[in-house]
Design brief:
The complex is a heterodimer of chains A (476) and B (248).
Chain A (H helix, E strand, L loop, with lengths): L8 H10 L1 H21 L3 H20 L1 H15 L1 E6 L2 H14 L4 E4 L3 H5 L2 H7 L3 E4 L2 H8 L16 H11 L9 H18 L2 E4 L3 E3 L4 E6 L3 H7 L3 E7 L3 E2 L5 H13 L6 E5 L13 E7 L3 H5 L15 H4 L4 H4 L10 H12 L1 H4 L11 H5 L6 H13 L16 H15 L1 H14 L8 H5 L13 H7 L6
Parallel strand pairs in A: 1-10, 2-3, 2-4, 4-7, 5-8, 7-10
Antiparallel strand pairs in A: 5-6, 6-9
Chain B lengths: L7 E4 L3 H5 L2 H12 L4 E3 L9 H6 L2 H14 L6 E3 L2 H14 L6 H9 L1 E3 H8 L11 E6 L2 H5 L4 H10 L3 E3 L15 H4 L1 H18 L3 E4 L2 H13 L5 E4 H9 L3
Parallel strand pairs in B: 1-2, 1-3, 3-4, 5-6, 5-7, 7-8
Helix pairs in contact in B: 2-13, 5-6, 7-9, 11-12
Classes of the chains: A alpha/beta (476), B alpha/beta (248).
Chain lengths: 476, 248
């Protein structure tokens, strides 16, 4: 995010909620994604077994992460893949830039990669005079419109086809206006083909990196990922360090969970397994393959036994699709790279609670995200944990910015609440007073927010405690 | 009722029912009594602690939870007329006291917690005879009854027992109504958008009564319906059931 534009969650939310077109687009798209997932996992027992397996595999990987990363580096190196380590996004960008310079490249063709978004790589390269060309259809659309992804898997999901038609017509030279999806796809394909052919460096993300074999696995549906990783002379893959898994045999259940949860597919159109650059005597493939492994706060997250579950994530985006908040405000409102439930827990841990802790307030804790997460991340529990860290009463916060929200007023309110609910006399008095006030409770603070779209709750004249006493229910 | 069932049950009235829905609380108690149970209402009970727990004030939540564990000390089942409070007590108390001296007590306590309709149907196998006029209702599933307690089927089974009651289900029954405790006031705009959609879904069913098993959702939804001037009645299922059957 640009440092100059302060993150104003409330304004973002208000603007998104007012945008009826956005709300319709999101609802329609999320309904489709939810239904497709449902259709591909019809047997709930089977799904539960699969989720448990996915969770166990990722847990096992996280438990021995340092060893697996070392093994991955050794295996990749043996295979001819050059491994680079980046502590933060500045270092990661520097590594990519250095490689670009080394190959005198002025442009890079990119497959979809959320880590490259995390690095704000396009912006960084642009400043250095290097063009980054997004080749995933969704990414291509939003890049034309100077937007960022609004979803982890389907980056242009906030646009409908009419809006895409207008963008293509406006931003691509000599493009007639058409709302025909096939024609639109053909227009994008044509524009991109030229770029694949003439560009020396391709960049991609990684879905799973397999330590046992030194393999980089990448799923996609458009073939652009394969083009980016095979057509240019140099392939640079970027990944967060939590993407490593132990064994090749760990992959099938994870793949099934990933594609089923993300797009409701049993398998994607393309499954790329990259184990080496072009070998001697081979006619195609990149001459160099580089893997950039990014930390950017992940090892700090790993250190906490509860928070580390954030790193189980396989970036399927299904928590977004099932979230009643995401479906109403869309990805851009969250103001950061990772939106939705997973973004709510990941962003504050990466960027600090002080700047982004407000994200954790945007949850009713309905539990829909945790229910569908393919690797069983207890997202609601982690939201609660981060809310607790925000106030850091015990001065034990481990997330940067912990305790930023601590204030006397709220502390007093909750202390008062505690006393009223611990001391029966106070409890009874409070309920009685509220009951006597009835409709005359002052509409300030929380009640003012409440009554913007609801009538005020009517506190009964006689509480249940009073009724029970009066009407003779056993007390002990 | 099987003979080895204990004759006594605890009733946990929940803070919202205590203050806003005491009629529903009394109805729930009467329903349990109608099954021949001695219903015990410990007077020193208060709140499950969830408001503070979900707002980041764990210490305060723990203090209030500790109080409930002390108050409900006998080994009777604890019947809770809310999926959300039941979920808190059953699924979050053990974690709240993990590694503390009360951990074992919290686990034992959690093991005795039942949601009201779960207790009526699953444990007591209760059947009721409908004496009310024909009516069309819809049912709102609370998120925690649905996802934490997994007990929604019992409430709906009770509604379906009533021969003059037609149940029309919501299109998006599993979607949150936007209450979420302090969420409704910390993110009022999102919460408002959610409850508006819920109310529209309810309107579409053509039902004249909305039934729910959680007073938080009920307060949110009926408040929004009244604000919009809708003539749809909102009721806790316990109250509805008692009115139509008198527990028989």
């Amino acid at each position: 995010m640009d440092a100059k534009t302060r993150f104003d969650f409330k304004s973002n939310i208000d603007a998104a909620l007012k945008d009826q077109q956005l709300r319709r687009n999101l609802r329609n798209a999320m309904d489709i994604l939810v239904d497709k997932r449902q259709a591909v996992f019809p047997d709930s027992d089977e799904l539960e077994q699969l989720r448990a397996a996915g969770n166990a595999i990722k847990r096992r990987a996280l438990k021995q992460l340092p060893r697996l990363l070392e093994q991955l580096e050794v295996k990749c190196s043996q295979n001819g893949i050059q491994v680079h380590w980046a502590e933060d996004t500045t270092q990661a960008n520097g590594i990519v830039l250095d490689l670009m310079h080394r190959h005198h490249a002025t442009a890079v063709v990119k497959g979809k990669s959320m880590v490259s978004e995390e690095m704000h790589l396009n912006h960084f390269l642009e400043e250095k005079g290097i063009e980054a060309v997004e080749t995933d259809l969704g990414e291509f659309i939003i890049q034309l419109n100077h937007e960022t992804p609004s979803h982890i898997i389907v980056p242009a999901i906030h646009k409908n086809k009419d809006e895409v038609a207008a963008i293509f017509h406006e931003k691509l030279a000599d493009t007639p206006y058409t709302e025909d999806v096939e024609e639109l796809t053909a227009i994008a394909r044509q524009a991109l083909r030229k770029r694949f052919a003439g560009t020396t460096v391709g960049l991609s993300g990684v879905n799973f990196a397999i330590a046992e074999t030194g393999t980089l696995l990448l799923v996609e549906n458009e073939g652009n990922g394969r083009m980016c990783t095979t057509a240019p002379d140099v392939h640079i893959a970027v990944m967060g360090l939590e993407k490593v898994v132990e064994k090749l045999s760990d992959v099938p259940p994870l793949l099934r969970l990933l594609t089923g949860s993300a797009t409701g597919q049993i398998v994607t159109t393309y499954v790329n397994m990259i184990t080496s650059p072009r070998k001697k005597g081979e006619k195609d493939g990149p001459k160099e393959v580089h893997l950039v492994i990014l930390d950017n706060g992940r090892s700090r997250i790993l250190a906490d036994p509860q928070l580390r579950q954030t790193l189980l994530c396989i970036r399927c985006g299904t928590c977004l699709n099932h979230c009643p908040v995401y479906v109403r405000i869309g990805g851009h409102a969250y103001g950061h790279v990772y939106p939705g439930p997973i973004g709510k827990i990941l962003t504050p841990q990466m960027e600090g609670l002080e700047r982004t802790g407000v994200l954790v307030t945007a949850s009713s804790l309905c539990g829909a995200c945790g229910e569908v997460c393919p690797v069983k991340i207890p997202i609601p529990d982690l939201i609660r944990r981060l809310r607790n860290e925000s106030y850091d009463q015990e001065k034990a916060a481990v997330v940067p910015g912990g305790g930023y929200k601590k204030n006397l007023a709220e502390t007093m309110v909750w202390k008062g609440w505690e006393l009223a609910n611990r001391l029966p006399v106070l409890n009874e008095m409070g309920t009685r007073m509220a009951g006597a006030m009835g409709k005359h409770l002052p509409k300030v603070g929380p009640l003012k927010q409440w009554t913007s779209v609801r009538t005020a709750p009517r506190v009964a004249r006689s509480s249940l405690h009073g009724r029970v006493r009066k009407e003779g229910v056993s007390h002990e | 009722m099987s003979p080895d069932l204990p004759g006594s049950v605890y009733f946990f009235g929940t803070c919202l029912m205590d203050a806003v829905y005491p009629d529903a609380g009394m109805a729930a108690i009467r329903l349990l009594q109608s099954r021949g149970l001695d219903v015990i209402f410990p007077p020193d009970q208060s709140c499950c602690g969830q408001p503070a727990y979900n707002s980041g004030f764990i210490e305060e939540a723990r203090a209030v939870a500790r109080k409930q564990i002390q108050v409900f000390s006998q080994p009777y089942p604890i019947v809770v007329p809310s999926g959300s409070c039941a979920g808190m007590m059953k699924h979050h108390y053990p974690g709240l006291f993990a590694g503390r001296k009360e951990e074992a007590a919290a686990r034992r306590f959690a093991g005795r917690v039942y949601e009201l309709f779960e207790y009526l149907v699953k444990v007591l196998n209760a059947t009721f005879e409908d004496r009310g006029d024909p009516v069309t209702v819809t049912w709102h599933s609370s998120c925690h009854a649905l996802r934490e307690m997994n007990v929604v089927q019992y409430a709906k089974a009770l509604i379906r027992q009533l021969k003059n009651v037609t149940l029309v289900e919501l299109l998006r029954e599993t979607e949150c109504c936007g209450f979420g405790g302090t969420f409704a006031v910390k993110q009022p705009a999102i919460s408002a958008a959610m409850v508006k959609d819920k109310v529209e879904d309810i309107r579409q069913t053509g039902a004249s009564t909305l039934l729910a098993g959680d007073c938080g959702c009920l307060m949110n939804i009926t408040g929004a319906m009244a604000h919009e001037g809708m003539a749809i009645d909102g009721k806790h299922l316990a109250e509805f059931l008692w009115e139509r059957t008198n527990g028989r």
